[in-house]
Amino acid sequence: MSWYIGIMSGTSLDGIDVALCKIDVINGSMETRAFHSPPFPDELLAKLTVLCTKPIQHLENIGQTQQLLTKAYADAVNSLLAKENVDPATISAIGCHGQTIWHSPASTLPFTWQLLDAALLARLCNINVIHNFRAKDMAYGGQGAPLVPPFHQWLCKDFPAHFQYRVLVNIGGIANVSIFDKEKLIAGFDTGPGNTLLDMWYQRHNIQMYDKNGAWASTGNYHRALLTQLLSDPYFVQAAPKSTGREYFNLAWLNQYLDQYYAVTSKTKDTVLAPQDIQRTLSMLTAQSIITSIQTYTQNAPTQLIVCGGGTHNQQLYADLTNVLPPSIAVTLLSSLGHDVDAIEAMAFAWLAACHESGIPSNAPSLTGANKAVVLGSKTNYK
């Protein structure tokens, strides 16, 4: 077994997840020794927030943001190693996704853009870096996403199988699912917004970054007509493979549907929805879009829904998710199965780095649309 570090920062921009994992890819074993999740420094968070919504900016600003981000990644890794008293020389590689600022697999010239200076990260940590995970899948006709379902399949091999279907849903900025028929991975895709719209709408009306525990949303009432309007977006009925991000689900997207809602319902300025009501409706949007996506595959068969990601800490969102579940779906947290709900994506990139080092293909062509299985990632040595 070899030691790997996985780094992930997602569309919710809630911090940098770092996992220290011992992995034997060949024999199928993994131990997560430590997990560290510091927030972004304020200056970097402000720059990333702008770039994720308006990336067409002066190149110097983009470049400086990338270097700040890389140094923040290095600080997070070095802090974890110091806390655990681990020598960098014992780490085989860091698997780092970088920060996605634009993902456009369906454009005329498909591309994806993650900020990261892999050479600087390798030098600052004295550890080799595996990065650029999406590019090769896209080069072979795929969307470069989703990346994590093969890891979920590898990780889920030891889960008890008391159901016809098992679904692992990760609620980050964007929610994504991996769907298994017994041990067979049959689907994996982004279902739509997770925390992204909730955070953006909350930030418009409050000074904090997110609605802690969903407390603000819990003071509002969801509006079925608005929810129906939001769910009418073509993305929700689009067939997989599909992937999305903040470049699609953002406040401009929301405002478009709010305008349509007011036009259809003939609401006046005196009868506009309270901000808390819209927040609660966005919570229901995340919950309902997840469940509807799952039922496309599972129908009414017995299904175990395993939930992880930052959205699990939003008590109102988790309650809304459980309330829209049909009787055929039983929900549980990933933590009840022995894994940290917050560390799952960082663990995934540690695993992807291990696969790269072992020459093991780690994409899922049936899910991404690629025409072949390929070894993902590029390697930058620190020496």
Automatic annotation (TrEMBL):
Enzyme class name: transferase
EC number: 2.7.1.170
MF terms in GO: ATP binding; kinase activity; phosphotransferase activity, alcohol group as acceptor
Domain of life of the native organism: Bacteria
GO BP terms in the entry: 1,6-anhydro-N-acetyl-beta-muramic acid catabolic process; amino sugar metabolic process; peptidoglycan turnover
Pathways involved: Amino-sugar metabolism; 1,6-anhydro-N-acetylmuramate degradation; Cell wall biogenesis; peptidoglycan recycling
Catalytic activity: 1,6-anhydro-N-acetyl-beta-muramate + ATP + H2O = N-acetyl-D-muramate 6-phosphate + ADP + H(+)
Keyword entries, A-Z: ATP-binding, Carbohydrate metabolism, Kinase, Nucleotide-binding, Transferase
Binding site for ATP: G10, T11, S12, L13, D14, G15, I16, D17
Keyword 4Fe-4S tagged: no
Function, in words: Catalyzes the specific phosphorylation of 1,6-anhydro-N-acetylmuramic acid (anhMurNAc) with the simultaneous cleavage of the 1,6-anhydro ring, generating MurNAc-6-P. Is required for the utilization of anhMurNAc either imported from the medium or derived from its own cell wall murein, and thus plays a role in cell wall recycling.
UniProt cross-references to HAMAP family, sorted A to Z: AnhMurNAc_kinase
Family: Belongs to the anhydro-N-acetylmuramic acid kinase family.
Protein name stated in the entry: Anhydro-N-acetylmuramic acid kinase
